[in-house]
C-alpha cells in the first residue's frame, strides 16, 4: 500500500495543501518549524487515531478554525481507497471511507503506517503510560476490533473509580459494594483479554526486535521485552512511575481462566486500599512493559545511542509484524527528523533496513542528512506550503 495523494484543510499550520506522492522514498525538506512534521503527523493520525506529539485532537486544528480535515487517497495494486477524517472542536470527530461514514476508531482497518520520531526516545526513557500506549496502538493496528475493547475497559475503570470515590465518601454502603462487584467482573473480563493480547504481541515482537536492533546498531545486545503485571504482584499502592509495582509475567500465568482468577484475587487483595484512595489500582491500565539490553533495564542503563537504537528497533519490528499481517501490502514507513540524530554508520544501516518497504516518507532539515543510497524524491516545505515537488 502507498499514499497516492494527501490533502489537508486547516490542519496545524496548513490552510490548504494537496500533495501527490509515489512509491519509494520521499523526503520532505525544510527548516524547522515550517510544517514537515505536520504532514506526517496527519498520516499517523489516520493509522492510529492519535498523534505522536499531543494527547488532544484540538491542537491539530488550525488556530481560529472549528475543524480540520485529513484526506488520503490510498493505492494497493489496482485498487484505490479514499480515507478521510474531520477533527472538530465542538463535536465528535467524523470519518469516511469512499465517502461512506465509518466510526473514527475504525480508521486503522483501512490504513497502516508506522512512524518513528525523536519523541520515541521516551519509549525507553519515559513513563510507563508511554510504553502502554505503544503496545496498545500496535494491538489495534493488527486487530482493529481491540479498539472497542480498550475503549470499554477505560470506561469501566472510570466508572469504577467514580463508585470507589462515592463509597469512600458515604462510608461504604452495602449497595455500593454490591455494585462494585458487578463492575469488577466487567473489569476482569475486558482486562484479561487485553493482558492476553499484549502478552501474545510481546512474544511475537521478540525475533523482529532482535533483528531490527542488530540491523541499526550493528551489534546484538539481546534486546528484550517483558511485562510486569500488577495483578500478579497485587502491589496496588505502587506509584505510576515505579516499575517495581507488580510482578513479571510468566507463560504459566498468562492464559484463560487462571489469569482471570488471578485478576479477581488481586482485586480482593487491594479492595481496602482502593476504597481508601478512590482508584482502581490493578489491571492493564497500570501494568508496565520492561525493555532490557544485555539483561539490564534499558531505562537507566542504556546510553543515549543504545536508547535511540532500541526505540527505532521497536518501530521497525512493528512495521515487520504489520507487513506479515497485511493483505494490502506494507505499512507506510515514516521517519520524522531521524537521520540528523544518527552517525554515518547508523544512517547507512537504517537505509538498508528500510529500503524494501513500498513507501517511505522522511522529514529532514537538510538533504545531506539523508543517505544518498535511498535515492529520494524531494519535496520542499515552507511556512505551511508545498513549495516544490
By secondary-structure content and strand pairing, the structural class works out as alpha+beta
Uncertain runs are 235-244
- The total domain count is 2
CATH architecture of the largest domain: 3-Layer(aba) Sandwich
Distance between the termini: 21 Å
Could you tell me the CATH topology label of the largest domain: Rossmann fold
User: Rough shape?
Assistant: globular
Biggest sheet architecture? 6 strands, antiparallel
User: N-to-C SSE series?
Assistant: EEEHEEEEEHHHHEHEHEEHHEHEEE
What is the CATH top level name of the largest domain? Alpha Beta
Query: Overall pLDDT, averaged?
Result: 89
The number of helices is: 10
Gyration radius (Cα, Å) is: 22 Å
Reading side by side through the largest sheet, how are the strands ordered?
2-1-4-5-6-7
Strand composition percent: 15-25%
CATH superfamily of the largest domain: P-loop containing nucleotide triphosphate hydrolases
Protein name: DNA replication and repair protein RecF
Keywords: ATP-binding, Cytoplasm, DNA damage, DNA repair, DNA replication, DNA-binding, Nucleotide-binding, SOS response
InterPro entries: DNA-binding_RecF (IPR001238), DNA-binding_RecF_CS (IPR018078), P-loop_NTPase (IPR027417), RecF/RecN/SMC_N (IPR003395), RecF_2 (IPR042174)
Family: Belongs to the RecF family.
Structure summary:
With 389 residues, the chain is an alpha+beta fold. The chain has helices at residues 36-48, 121-125, 128-142, 146-169, 174-217, 230-233, 256-277, 298-301, 304-325, 344-354, and strands at residues 2-11, 14-20, 24-29, 67-76, 79-88, 94-97, 100-102, 113-116, 224-229, 247-248, 288-293, 296-297, 332-336, 359-364, 377-382, 385-388. A six-stranded antiparallel β-sheet has the order 2-1-4-5-6-7, covered by helices on one side. A six-stranded mixed β-sheet has the order 8-13-14-3-15-16, with helices on both faces.
Amino acid at each position: 500500500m502507498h499514499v497516492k495523494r494527501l490533502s489537508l484543510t486547516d490542519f496545524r499550520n496548513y490552510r490548504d495543501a494537496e500533495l501527490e506522492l509515489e512509491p519509494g522514498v520521499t523526503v520532505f525538506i525544510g527548516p524547522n518549524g515550517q510544517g514537515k512534521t505536520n504532514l506526517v503527523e496527519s498520516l499517523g493520525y489516520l493509522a492510529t487515531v492519535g498523534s505522536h506529539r499531543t494527547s488532544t485532537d484540538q491542537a491539530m486544528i488550525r488556530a481560529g478554525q472549528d475543524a480540520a480535515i485529513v484526506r488520503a487517497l490510498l493505492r494497493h495494486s489496482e485498487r484505490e481507497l479514499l480515507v478521510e477524517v474531520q477533527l472538530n472542536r465542538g463535536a465528535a470527530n467524523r470519518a469516511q471511507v469512499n465517502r461512506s461514514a465509518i466510526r473514527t476508531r475504525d480508521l486503522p482497518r483501512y490504513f497502516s503506517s508506522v512512524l518513528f520520531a525523536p519523541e520515541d526516545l521516551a519509549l525507553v526513557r519515559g513513563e510507563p503510560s508511554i510504553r502502554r500506549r505503544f503496545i496498545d496502538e500496535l494491538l489495534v493496528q493488527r486487530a482493529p476490533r481491540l479498539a472497542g475493547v480498550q475503549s470499554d475497559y477505560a470506561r469501566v475503570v472510570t466508572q469504577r473509580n467514580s463508585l470507589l470515590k462515592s463509597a469512600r465518601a458515604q462510608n461504604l454502603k452495602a449497595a455500593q459494594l454490591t455494585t462494585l462487584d458487578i463492575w469488577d467482573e466487567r473489569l476482569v473480563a475486558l482486562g484479561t483479554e487485553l493482558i492476553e493480547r499484549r502478552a501474545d504481541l510481546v512474544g511475537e515482537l521478540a525475533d523482529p526486535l532482535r533483528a531490527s536492533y542488530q540491523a541499526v546498531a550493528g551489534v546484538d545486545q539481546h534486546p528484550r521485552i517483558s511485562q510486569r503485571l500488577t495483578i500478579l504482584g497485587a502491589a496496588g499502592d505502587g506509584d505510576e512511575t515505579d516499575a517495581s509495582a507488580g510482578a513479571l509475567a510468566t507463560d504459566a500465568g498468562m492464559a484463560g481462566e487462571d489469569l482471570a482468577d488471578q485478576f479477581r484475587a488481586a482485586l480482593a487483595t487491594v479492595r481496602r486500599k482502593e476504597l481508601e484512595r478512590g482508584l482502581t489500582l490493578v489491571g492493564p491500565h497500570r501494568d508496565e512493559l520492561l525493555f532490557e539490553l544485555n539483561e539490564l533495564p534499558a531505562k537507566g542503563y542504556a546510553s543515549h545511542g543504545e536508547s535511540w537504537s532500541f526505540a527505532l528497533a521497536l518501530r521497525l519490528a512493528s512495521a515487520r509484524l504489520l507487513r506479515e499481517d497485511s493483505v494490502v501490502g506494507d505499512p507506510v514507513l515514516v521517519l520524522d527528523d531521524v537521520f540528523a540524530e544518527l552517525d554515518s554508520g547508523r544512517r547507512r544501516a537504517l537505509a538498508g533496513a528500510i529500503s524494501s518497504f513500498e513507501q517511505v516518507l522522511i522529514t529532514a532539515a537538510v538533504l545531506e542528512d539523508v543517505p544518498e543510497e535511498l535515492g529520494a524524491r524531494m519535496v520542499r516545505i515552507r511556512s505551511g506550503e508545498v513549495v516544490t515537488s
